[in-house]
Write a structure and sequence with these properties.
The structure holds two protein chains of two kinds. Chain A is built from eight helices and seven strands, in the order βααβαβαβαβββααα. Chain A is α/β, with parallel strands linked by helices. The two termini of chain A are 35 Å apart. By secondary structure, chain B is an alpha/beta fold. Chain B is 31% helix and 17% strand. Chain B has helices at residues 6-12, 39-47, 78-94, 109-116, 147-156, 181-192, 207-211, 214-222, 238-244, 253-263, 314-327, 353-363, 382-390, 393-400, 449-458; strands at 15-18, 24-27, 30-33, 58-61, 97-99, 124-127, 141-144, 158-161, 165-172, 200-205, 231-233, 276-281, 288-290, 298-300, 342-345, 374-377, 403-404, 425-428, 443-446. The mean pLDDT of chain B is 97. The chains are: A alpha/beta, B alpha/beta. The structure holds iron/sulfur cluster.
Chain lengths: 214, 468
């Protein structure tokens, strides 16, 4: 069961680079864990710290890179990450959304995402919102201009809005995904409601293409 | 009947159920499993008190973490060892077939699937790994999934997915000597960009594709994900059948004949419509070298490092400048002036026997340049390694000063001990040149096996078309 997502009112942090790949979101040395947790401290590790991170070693006391945006005091506690196009490209590692979520992000806003990454986010209650390039561009300007800039992401209404409601942007999402996210539903449980259909499909396949079941 | 693409056919023949919004429950024929993306899935299944739906659909191997040096002492790094042990334990508990580290058949998951005939036309093949696109060379719908989806497949033999768009990349014309499937793949990415295939399945077609061996087609499909496409496809032809015949997991006898009759239908109908089409003239493709930190940052070997000052788009310009700083390169430097420190021949893109033969042909009778600190050849599987040794390729590499290693992912991503040191520059036959991919601060140039081999001998990039 994942956490359900309805509406989020959160501080926005900007990551102004296109094509941020999953190797940057969570470098490979941290993929050796056999757990789902413990990745938040190593989110964007190579950009965030000045030294090289090692798995299974404490990150407390490591020198932070003061130039990296998430290290700036004004973005502490951010729960919405504003990003550029093709965010999350590269590998299928679900450790990327795990790290983002554990760090404290609940929603992402970008003009586009890589396909596998997008899926992985949805499976972890991390909402990837797609807005137009122009809308995202404007948000980058506003985040820079107004310290403490917050947004309200409402999944039910499919809107991103400024807290005063002055600006409202709509976004699209598949109804089925929305349904699962809003209700925090476990995909596997849902699929197993179709267990009979799966079995029937499988039997037909076994009959028609027996070589697949060798 | 309306004309359908190969992708349409594969999709429809695996549809179990469709939700109102088109979300589809898709049946999975083959699930490949490796140690990095599976432990949390097995754990989740255990917590939910579920069992694998169909054990025989799974095939497992440890590849990312395994050492490529002597393995008789096991894995030294305790964190890597735990991950590999966990895979062994999970497979044992559920009765899943696994090629363990010291099994002769062990290797990179995307090399062993086809090699064993575990990847067959008409299948859906998934794996918790983005380069699962490789298997599409066999006209099966193959794509990478995340760990939650790995658990979903283990538990239900299905996936929830939405249909992608159809994209056709048609490549016609002969390839020049020294120009390979890898160069075609990089040229396609250079042309459409790393997000050019996002939301699409790419079918590769045309005379050039048909003239490629299955290994070349795998290289091409492998890089589809680098163009943003989750899956790449090539239709079945005689070469596909010839490759599969006699493989351990492939059907035999009467079943083979029945399978072949079905497989021959696995191609797009002539009238089928694609959402997007791209045409590539193979005659114009030259050996490619990446200069930046994304596979689309690529030029041909006779070109120069691009100049950001000439880029009008501000975001792109910044990206180029950042990449050049990271790569330690100056604009307008001829690519052939770039000197390298290390060479890596391997990865699921280019570690099969034909890749090793091609690299060995360049290396034969020569020595590494004096500035090369390390050049390594990492075969894609134990069987590839054995075949190469049988042909004497290992001797050619070793005589030249290359290290000849045990199979695995190795320096493609450096999860084991094989990695670049900060600032080191590498000619690599792998698929990703992201920052830090081959080691923190390491600088990766993606090239074909021939180009990597020639660079190892010359000490800098050279145009293999002129190699004598
Ligand atoms: S060789 Fe590289 S790209 Fe291929 S599966 Fe291994 S790590 Fe991934």
């Amino acid at each position: 069961m994942m956490e359900s997502f309805t509406a989020l009112h959160g501080l926005v942090a900007p990551l102004d680079r296109a094509n941020v790949d999953t190797d940057q979101i969570i470098p490979k040395q941290f993929l050796k864990s056999i757990k789902r947790t413990g990745f938040g401290a190593n989110l964007f590790d190579a950009w965030r710290y000045l030294d090289e991170g090692r798995p299974a070693k404490s990150d407390a006391g490591r020198p932070l890179n003061p130039d990296f945006v998430l290290n700036q005091p004004r973005y502490q506690g951010a729960s919405i990450l504003l990003a550029r196009k093709n965010f999350g490209c590269g590998s299928s590692r679900e450790h990327a959304p795990w790290a983002l979520a554990e760090y404290g992000f609940r929603a992402l806003i970008a003009p586009s995402y890589a396909d596998i990454f997008f899926n992985n986010c949805c499976k972890n209650g991390l909402l990837p919102v797609t807005l137009t390039e122009a809308e995202v561009d404007r948000l980058f300007h506003e985040v820079a201009a107004f310290p403490g800039f917050r947004l309200v992401v409402d999944l039910e209404k499919q809107t991103v809005a400024t807290p005063d409601g002055g600006k409202v942007m709509r976004f699209d999402i598949d109804p089925f995904r929305k349904y699962c996210l809003v209700n925090g539903l476990d995909d596997i449980g849902l699929t197993l409601r179709h267990a009979d259909k799966i079995r029937a499909f499988e039997e037909r396949r076994r009959f028609e293409q027996p070589w697949l079941f060798g | 009947m309306i004309a359908r693409t190969l992708y349409d056919k594969l999709w429809e023949s695996h549809t179990v159920h469709v939700e109102e919004d088109g979300t589809t429950l898709l049946y999975v024929d083959r699930h490949l499993v490796h140690e990095v993306t599976s432990p949390q899935a097995f754990e989740g299944m255990r917590l939910a008190r579920r069992k694998p739906w169909r054990v025989s659909a799974n095939l497992a191997v440890a590849d990312h973490n395994v050492p490529t040096t002597d393995r008789s002492g096991g894995i030294a790094d305790p964190v890597s060892r735990l991950q590999v042990d966990t895979l062994d334990r999970n497979c044992e508990e559920h009765g899943i077939v696994e090629f363990r580290m010291n099994d002769a058949r062990q290797g990179i998951v995307h090399v062993i699937g086809p090699e064993q005939g575990a990847t067959l036309p008409g299948m859906t093949v998934v794996c918790g790994d983005s380069h699962t696109s490789t298997h599409g060379a066999f006209a099966c719908l193959a794509f990478g999934i995340g760990t939650s989806e790995v658990e979903h497949v283990l538990s239900t033999q299905c996936l929830l997915a939405k249909k992608m768009k159809n994209m056709l990349v048609r490549i016609e014309g002969p390839l020049a000597r020294g120009v390979t499937a890898k160069d075609v793949a990089l040229a396609v990415i250079g042309r459409i960009g790393i997000a050019g295939g996002t939301g699409c399945t790419i079918e590769y077609a045309g005379g050039t594709v048909r003239s490629l061996t299955l290994e070349g087609r795998m290289t091409l499909c492998n890089m589809s994900i680098e163009a943003g496409a989750r899956a790449g496809l090539v239709a079945v032809d005689e070469a596909t059948l010839a490759y599969l015949k006699g493989r351990p997991f492939a059907p035999r006898g009467e079943l083979w004949d029945r399978a072949v009759a079905h497989w021959r239908t696995l191609k797009s109908d002539p009238e089928a419509k694609f959402d997007r089409e791209v045409a590539i003239d193979a005659r114009s493709v030259k050996p490619q070298v990446t200069w930046g930190t994304s596979p689309e940052m690529v030029v041909t070997v006779d070109e120069r490092v691009p100049d950001p000052d000439r880029e009008k788009d501000a975001i792109r310009r910044e990206g180029m400048e950042r990449a050049l700083t990271y790569m330690g390169l100056k604009p307008n430097t001829p690519m052939t002036d770039i000197r390298i420190d290390k060479v890596f021949i391997g990865s699921c893109t280019n570690s099969r026997i034909e890749d090793l033969r091609a690299a060995a042909a360049i290396v034969r009778g020569r020595r590494l340049a004096s500035n090369i600190r390390l050049a390594m050849v990492v075969p894609g599987s134990g069987l590839v390694k054995a075949q190469a040794e049988h042909e004497g390729l290992d001797r050619i590499f070793k005589d030249a000063g290359f290290e000849w290693r045990e199979p695995g992912c190795s320096m493609c991503l450096g999860m084991n001990a094989d990695r670049l040191e900060p600032g080191e520059r590498c000619a690599s036959t792998s698929n990703r040149n992201f920052e830090g991919r081959q080691g923190t601060g390491g600088r990766t140039h993606l090239v074909s096996p021939e180009m990597a081999a020639a660079a190892a001998i010359a000490g800098h990039f050279v145009d293999v078309r002129r190699w004598r």
